[in-house]
Amino acid sequence: MPRTPMFSEPLHVGRPNVGDRQRLLERINGALDRLWLSNNGPLVAELEERVTTLTGARHCVALSNATTGIQLAARACGIRQGQEVVVPAFTWIASPHALEWAGLVPVFCDVDEETATADPQSVEELIGPRTGGILGVHVYGRPCRVTELAKVADRHGLPLLFDAAHAFGSTYQQQPLGGFGSAEIFSFHATKYINSFEGGALVTNDDEVAAKVRAMRNLGLSPDRDIVSAGTNGRMSEISAAMGLVSMDIMDDLIEVNMRNELWYREGLAGLPGVTVRSQAPKERANHQYLVLEIDAAASGVHRDTVHETLYAHNVFSRRYFYPGCHQSEPYVHAPAVHAPVPLPHTEALSTRVLALPTGSAVGEAEIAGVCDLIRTTLAG
Ligand SMILES: *Cc1c(COP(=O)(O)O)cnc(C)c1O
């Protein structure tokens, strides 16, 4: 620990963005007055409508979180227990864990280093008689190579799902994410761009998938309360929907804040050898909720982990997001023949270079200048 850390108050990655408190409290008061706190209340209905408008997709089913959403999506698409689902190893552990917990078998594909998303060729290599589906992940809100993945899925007659936990508000070929594949799943967890404390949403253009998920999130009950399937409790509460709606009110402002922060980071780190700020896809809208550096030890002379530790000592809680690759995490690391049958060189290379830094409304120009100074001094050795 240095004698005086640069920051006396810690800076975190993923500090919640909070919208207008007064409007939030008004919405919560409304729910209290109605005595309607959960079970598809008016705030949940309003959030679903807002999401269909924003994404242009036919259906939105609000959920308790994205992890449950991935499980419901897989089941609604007919992926059966014991079947394999191809998923990139470079993602948050929630993506494979959601599958594993539902009795499915995650099989890890590699990513391309430019988009950090599933490499369609690597996906196709892994498809075999046990494959039940594909789960792409729009990592850091940058869209997958959707068209190519859809071709692979179509060629093999497989459902294609997208973990869109990072990607609310992002576009692919100028179309909002949400309507691609069989379904896309957003997360509204507290650390995400739009938050509802805890929450998520499944978005789809498929009427049947939507109807199934809507029933399954409510213990398999139809709108007429007939029991039509097995189900679970994946409901979103009214207080979560209130937070989500208020959060969506400021979504454009948040993107502006994130983009301005990114500019300050780019200026502050310009010219440092071996250090790059990861970019979003050209010509696409993105939420810029993550600010991710890549530190190439060979070119910079300093390993990413050294920068990470130095920042920590100064109260800047950067995150190695994602390290290690999911294939090197519990429990998958113990069964490489099942979960990681092909080499994953790009996942492994990326996961030693990436470092997520604080952004969002909790940091400003002064904090970012300080973080950049710390990185400069660390590299100067
Ligand atoms: C946050 C996250 C999830 C899980 O979302 P929850 O709403 O917390 O369940 C899934 N996948 C990725 C890539 C995430 O970052």
Automatic annotation (TrEMBL):
Domain of life, source organism: Bacteria
SUPFAM superfamilies in alphabetical order: PLP-dependent transferases
Keywords: Aminotransferase, Pyridoxal phosphate, Transferase
GO molecular function: transaminase activity
Database matches in InterPro entries: DegT/StrS_aminotransferase (IPR000653), PyrdxlP-dep_Trfase (IPR015424), PyrdxlP-dep_Trfase_major (IPR015421), PyrdxlP-dep_Trfase_small (IPR015422)
Family statement drawn from the similarity comment of this UniProt entry: Belongs to the DegT/DnrJ/EryC1 family.
Protein name stated in the entry: Aminotransferase class I/II-fold pyridoxal phosphate-dependent enzyme
Species of provenance: Streptomyces axinellae
Taxonomic path: Bacteria, Bacillati, Actinomycetota, Actinomycetes, Kitasatosporales
